[in-house]
Amino acid sequence: MDWHEEIRRLDTALSRGEITAAEHRKRRDEVLAEASGGASGPRLLHRPGQVAAPEAPEHTVVIDAAQAAGNPQPELHHPPRSDRSWSGPIDGADVFSVQSKSGTGRGVLTSMVVLLGLAIVGAGLWWFLLGNDRASSAPPPASAPPTSAAPWGTDRLPNPTDALFSTTAVLTPQQALDNGFVRADDVESMKAAGVEKVYFRAVTENGLVYHLFAFQTAGKTGGGDLAANLLQGAKADVDGLPDGVNAARAEAPGALVLEATYGTDQGAVRIVVARQGEIDEPLMTTELRDAVRVTVGSLGVR
Fold it and tell me: Binning pLDDT at 50, 70 and 90, where does residue 222 land?
C-alpha cells in the first residue's frame, strides 16, 4: 500500500468514527514523513516557482455513533431569534398586561399596540398639564408596617368604556413617579399611608384617555386623607358625583384633564379623563361622572 492509499484509508476511518481526530493527525503525519523521507514511495517535491497552497487550519470533527453506523442524523431546526424586549420603568412595561373582552389573533395584537400607544400619549399629556416634581429633597419617612389586608388586584378597577381592550399594571410608588403619574410629594403621602402597590388601568376610546388608579393603604383605615393629597389641578364642581368624591381640572391650549379622587376602605382611588385636540368639556364631564359611577360600584366611597 503506497502513502496515497494509506491517507485515504485514514480519512475513511476518521469519517466512520473508528479513530479520533488526534489519531488521524498523528498517523497522517507519520505517513507523510515516511513518504517524504524516502523510506517508501516517492519523495514529496516542491517545484521552483510553485507556490505551496496554505494548509487548512485543523479542526475537530465530532461524529455521532449513529452516523458512523450509516444512520443519518435528523436535521436540527433552530427557532428564529426573537429580539423583543419590553422593559424599563414601567418601566413597569414588564408589568403591563392586556386584557380583552373578545377577539384573538392578529387583530388583537394590532389593537393592543395602538391602544397602548394612545395610553402612553395620554400619560404624557397628563404629566405636561399637571406637572411633576421628579425629585424630593425631603428624607423618606419611616417605613409603614405591612398591610394585613388581602392585596387588591387590577380587576378592582373596571373598564369604564365599551372599548374591547385596556392596559393594566401593578406599579410601585416610585414607578408611578418615574412615569409621571404622580408627584414627588404624592410618593411621600403614599409611603406615610403604607402604600406599596399602585393598581393602574388605562383605556382609550374615541380620542379620550381614561386612567384609573387604586392605592391600597396599610391596615384597615380609609384613604380619605391620601385621596385629598392625590388630587391635582384646580378643584372643580362636577354635578352628579357621589358625596365624598372631589374633582379637579387642568387646562392648556388644545388639552384638558379632568380628575376625581376619593377615599375607600383600605385605600384611595383616582380617576382621570384627558383629551388632546378638539375639546368637548361637557362630554368629558359626563365621561368622568360615568367612570366614577362604575368604579364606585367596585371600590365604594368611604
Answer: low
